[in-house]
Amino acid sequence: MGAVVILHRNTKADKTINQHCPKTIEMNLKIKETMQTKRKLLNSQEAAEYLGLSLSYFRKMMMRRVIPMYKPSGKLCFFDPDDLDAYLKSVRISSQSEIDSEAERYLANNRK
After folding, report:
1. Which of 60, 88, 105, 109 is least enclosed, having the fewest CB within 10 Å?
2. Is pTM, for the whole model, over 0.70?
């Protein structure tokens, strides 16, 4: 049998380094902020919150393929806010005045 090697980080040393290097902490925060602002795709939790839905209902919609998604790794799903906006706007209900005017137009064009 081969030897098993267990690797671990010395978290105390990492904390000590970070406490003495405030520039490192500040730089890490800036990198995180930059990556979050550049990333335009949302994960499932963020997309559910964006639409105002519960995560479980949002997942049902995903499984039914109601909402377009991206799966670059084949496992994690990502959503474009523009696609989510298009979904929200796709099911428009006409007002009563729009229905009445459409009916009048139809009747005017189809009178014999």
Report:
1. 109
2. no
